[in-house]
Structure formats: structure tokens, C-alpha cells
Amino acid sequence: MSFDSIAIQRLRRKVAWRILPLTILLYLAAYLDRANVGFAKLRMKSDLGFSEEVFGIGIGIFFLGYLTLEIPGALLVERWSARKWFARILVTWGLLSAATALVETPAQFYTVRFLLGVAEAGFFPGLIVYFTHWFPAGERARAMSGFIVAVPLSLALGAPISSLLLDVDWLGWRGWQWLFIVEGLPAVLLGFITLRFLTDRPRDARWLTPAERDYLEGQLAREAQAKEQTGRFTIGQALRTPNVWLLALGIFATNTGGYAMSFWMPTTVKSLSGGSDSSALLYSGLFYACGLAGVIYSGFAADRTGNPKWTCIAGQWSTGLFLAASAIPGQPFWMVMAWLVLTGLVAHSWPPPFWALPTATLTASAAAASIGVINMCANLAGYLGNHLMGWLRDRGSSESTILFLLACCYLLGGLIVSRVRLRAAPLLSKVVTTNDP
What we know:
The protein is mostly helical.
């Protein structure tokens, strides 16, 4: 079969429509189940008598659990089976998320959140590696934006749904308990769907023709060979590469503010507006919904310009500047909310181009290990940012102070990423282009 430009575009659409919808759905469930504690907090706090710092530790300890299988999870996807690994993750995290409805003490809260992190560990870096099995480098940022859109989408949908569930009182269980059950158990069902429908690699895809499988496998193999020619990296060498640690520090700084902002937005909005729990969740939903446009645009912009690095930095710096503007004291709530809406537009625009950077210059196993290390730092930031947020709130810090600190995290993250050097990117772009008939 001859692959002209029309056949190539048809193949790319076929792959995208088969891979992206399911991965978007999986990541939507994952992010909602880790973040819904921020919605439930509005009622859990009074029902259980937890302090702000208890919630900060409980929200953050998820990320310490996540660290335990970070690198092994990415390597299992590279060397074993994404389908089986993701199915295991989904079933266990769905059950543990639902089990959060049973907590009564801070120790129980910490335990179930830590175990939820362990259960979900390796999922996100595994998805990054999984995309390298299906999408060439020139399409990867766009594909990444396709499934990272699940982050703001899950929060935008979760906010109004959670608002409704918080007012439920069935069978003697409070609304926040039903919130965890209703939003957790679908992940278990998705685990079995994943086992049935997810395809590990193009060579396993019965929904592709033999010629399409051969073409896609060949294109990805040529890309991998081009990376090898730019310098063969072992896993150990990858971990000694400055770019890996610049990316790790860059995402650590950014996520220290980013995770705290996402998880505590309902609390922040309620404090600023003085309104009800329902109105706080609806305002928060508006903030999250605005992120959809930024995610989609950034992936296309990174692929079109061939410069994911500066697309990423633009998202980090613009988020920091809008957050800083929202922190100006003395503004009415409507103006602060306007700044937060602008923040929402760009707050999720940096991850798609960011996660295209580790795979741009490293070989398969080295990239898998590097992604695990980078995401470990991302999750350490999740613990630090959320613990710090609870600690500051318990000690009476103002919302303006907190928002300004979050802004500084984004600005510092962008500054660090600006130091990353991607010397191999032009060569890879050239090789991929010349192998497309």
C-alpha cells in the first residue's frame, strides 16, 4: 500500500479517534478522584472537625503515595503492557476513592489518601510513555493536549456535580460521603473497559490494516533510531542529564502553586465571595472550564511552531502574572474573579508542551525513567503546596498573600524551564518530515 499524504492523514485520524477518547476518559476519572476532596472539604471540615492543616496534609499525602511506583510504572508501560497496568490501577484507585467516604479521624483520612496515591502511581507517566508508542514526535504535543484537556474538564464537571451531591442525605450518609462513592466507583468499571479495549502498540491493533501497522511501527522505529544516533542514553545517563533535572525543578516550582490552586480553589472562592458552598463550587467550575480552551490551543501551537518549550513557558508566566493581579488588595470580588477567569484560561496550557519535552531527546527506556523522575518532583510539589496551603490558612494568612505566593511559583517554574536546551529537536523534526511520503 502506498502512503501518500491523504493516507497518512487518514491513519493519524484513525489512531487519534481510537486512542484519545478512552485515555481522556481515564484521565478525567483519575483527576476527579484525586481532586474531589477539595469539593468535599466544604462539608467534611464541619462534619469531622478537621483543621485546615489536617486537610492540607491529607490532600498532599496522596502525592507521597504516588511516588512509590512512579518510575516502575513508567517502565512497566514501556516493557510490559499499558493495558494490564492501567486496568489494575483503575480498579484499585476506584475502590480506595470510594472508601474515603468511611473516614472519621485524621489518621484514617491520611491512610486512605496515601493508599489512593499508591494505587494511582505510575498512571500519568505511563500515559506519557504510552503516547510515544502511537504518536510521532511532531504530533505528540497535540495528542497530549487532547488528553490533558481531561484535567480542567474533570474539575469543571466535578464542581457542579459535587455541588448537587453535597446536598444529598440518603440512607443516613452525608452528601460528601456520597460524593466519594458516586465519583469513585466508575473507575472500577473503566478498569474492565480498559482491559477489553485498550491496545498496547500498533503491532497489536486489529483495527489497523497490516499496511497501516507496518507504516506506523516503521515511522516510530525510524524516529527512535534517529534519537539513538544523536547520542545513546542509558537510564543512568539520562538521570545525569542537566535537562532532566531542569525539567524536574521547573515542574516542582510550578506544581507547588498549581496543585494548591486547583485543590483549594473552592475554599479560596468561598472566602473571597462570602457566599454559599454551592455558589463557591459554581464559581470554581467557571474557573476550571476556562482551562479547556488553553489546553487545546497550547498543544496545537506547540506542534505548529515546533517550539513546545516557549509555548510551555508562555503558559507558566501568563498564569503567574494573572494570579499576581488577582492578589492586589482592595479589589471587589467581581474583579478578582475576572483575574481568576483569565488565570483559568492559561493555567492548564503549559502541561501539553511541557510533557513533549522529555521524549524529544531521549531514547525509549531513558525517557521512561526520566518521565518518572520528573513526575516524582511534580508530585512532591503536590505534597508541599497543599501542606503549605493548610499551614498558612490555619495561621491566618490572607487570600491575597496566598494568591501572590502561588503566582511566584508559576513565574519561577517558567524561569527554570527557560534554561532547558533541546539540541536534538531540529534533527528529529527533519527525520520525521523526510520519512513522511
